[in-house]
Write the structure tokens for this entry.
Amino acid sequence: MFDLDQDLFFDIKEIIEEEWNPQKYFNETDYHKDLYQLLKNRLREDRRIFRERGNNRADIVIDDKIGIEIKKDLRHKSEVDRCVTQVKRMKREYNYIFSFNCWG
């Protein structure tokens, strides 16, 4: 069966892998802004792209189907555990989820 959400997921994955090379930022929000701007520029105009949207508040949401969670400098088990819990909650709301840990 043809899955438009899956196609969108792989389009986003390709954009991130091939084009997202953010500078080192001091805070997580700057990574959100950087990726958000790239996706706004590269995805079709009819795509709805939001920052911090939904009950589970993914950092970036595309078409209310794909959530992106970005963390910065996760170093401790408690931080990783919190991120895993957030992603698990997001699974209830989004069909696909990206999660990144940016170092810098």
